[in-house]
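USER: Please consider what follows.
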Amino acid sequence: MTAVNAAWTRVGIDVGSATTVAVVCRTDGLWQPLTFDGQPWLRSGVYRRGTGPVLTGAQALAAAMADPAGYLPDPAGRISTAAVPLGDGTVPGVHLVGAVVRRVLDETERRCGGPLPEVVLVVPPGWGPPRRALLREAAQYAGVREPVLRPAAEAVAAHGQAIDVPVARWIVVCDLGARAAASVVRRTVTGYEVLAEIDGDAGGDRIDEVLAIQLATASTATASTATASTAPGAPPEANSTASSGVDSPTPSGASAQMPAGATPTDAWHDPTPVDEISDSNPHRTARTSRARPVAAAWAVRMTVRAAKEATASTPAVLIPAPVDSNTPGMSPGGVPQSGVPATGAMMVITSAQVQAAAAPVIDTATKLICQAVQAAEVPAETGCGLLLIGGTAAIPGTADRIQAGTGLATHALPGPALAAACAATNAGRYEPSPAPNASQPQGILANIRSTMAPTGPKPTTAVPSWSQLFAPLIPALASMLLAFHAVMSGYVENSTWAPDADRYLGINDGQLAMAAVLAVIASAAVGANYGPVLRPDQIPAGRQPPAGLPVAAGLLSGAGIGVAVAALYAGIGAAYHNGPFVLRLIQSTLVAAIPMAAIVAIAAYLIFRGAPEPEIGWGLALTVPHPPIVLATIAMAAITLAANKTYPPDFMATWQSAIFRCSGLLLGLATAYLIAERRRTQIISAIPLTVIMMLIASYNTAKTLATIWIVSLACWWIRRTWQIGAYGIPNDRRHANR
């Protein structure tokens, strides 16, 4: 890792239907968007001719001006197509998406000085396992060895930081991009789960279509007026220059450009019914694969889209006027062969015009949200609000219109086009949740509150998973077993040659030290697994805590409790044997427990500073594997048991030695398990460790054996801490050593 990219740890990529956005993120949570061709987004369209390379962004658009047949504006919509026709050849859809990802990675390396260790890809709403696998394959085709996939809705719900969602409550995430997708997400103890998702053609593409039809109609009407005014015999007052600012077409002009019986509103109405998202949805495939322009070519649509986005911050925008495709020198759709309108006329798109064109489309998106909530079958009173993401959400008035139609408190996230990429990049663990298979509700109701009376079941408290319940249990039981067995097996001897001398306490100090260390380990596991659960239900606005604060606080609390339990073991031992042995026993327990607690505290600090949470979760990642704990506990207890009983001479000569050898074998295996992380390395290191420990195992060397095992346990935590601070814990369950 170079000095330039040392601060940047991961890049998040959101490949959309129209545009692709990407952000680079640091360990402290700071992020910056990547720019492409001078813009904070990359056009998703790709171009290829013959056997040449796949072009992206502005290069693809420029090449498509001369050869439109080789251009595909939405490669993500064709990712499952084995052979996408481009020009005079075919290309797999996975390779086309991979070309877009590769372009983002090239810009990342240029911006950060080298490749980043983690690449996060946003999974669009409704993409099930088949298309997720294809998205992973596309990233691998682009050169990413182990891409991380984050579902968009779950990531935004967890890291949108606009609405606090307590456990067992739900929230709606509406992605208004080229299309519209409404997802109902519920928070659980372990993360977030998607209850229902519904997709519809009610996004930016439809708004662009409405604007393109309006502008083409107005341009044609203006051109006809100008032609008529210059005809011989025309009235002098009609012989004037065509107007260059047309806000909207007249109703008659609009009807002239539409099929008989159609209305201007019908120009945007999709005859395809709204269906819930699924990989097998034929309507979605048809809608994403067919050509969208109705009254203008896709090149004009690009111009309209740019103007629409500009009106979010500018009252009015000038664009070249579309020209009738029947005009000589024009390509289909009214685009001049040179790419510049022959007449040089300009038209005006205003913010009010964009809002008027978007109104019916946003109303359709509102109905999709109502249907999604109905399909989720959640009580209305447990809803927390609605989050808007996607470029279309930036249109002024969108959030207010949706809130009026749904009754949900609606928040458009800042920079909505980048919201999914930022949330996925900063997201923690998300267990994959299957795509819902709820049936399509019949009818569309206008308001969620009127369709969901609070007659459903009351919300219930989420139940922790079994892994969370048992993760801290094994080290806790092992700690108590070792501590009380060591105390009960100890003995006190009075000096026979000096009656006034201090009494001698015979106890396995190594076993007591292991019990103290395991108390810290168990308490840290409790903090890592249950820290997020203790998050307050309500957080004041503007005081959103860091994402890693619950886990960091849990680890610090666990480390302190573990040290206190270790000191308690010393006090119990001294009280049981009724002698002045507290200082000696405290040395045996705290000398081992305090360094381990310090390592845990360092890990907590790094998590608090913004270390990325692995997919396996902090709880699983920071819980010491159970096998080495069980093996070491059995071995040390067996050594103490064999040395503190009176056996016949024949037993002392044979079975006691055998118990020591077997205990050394178990301790060697437990030590190798902790020192190494890979299975092959564990096997190689186990051979010398088991041989050495079998040879030296005895009651007199028990403290030495315990020290070796405690050091290996510290090595495990040091490795975890280094992974957290350097590049993050690998997103692989194999690293949990289960």
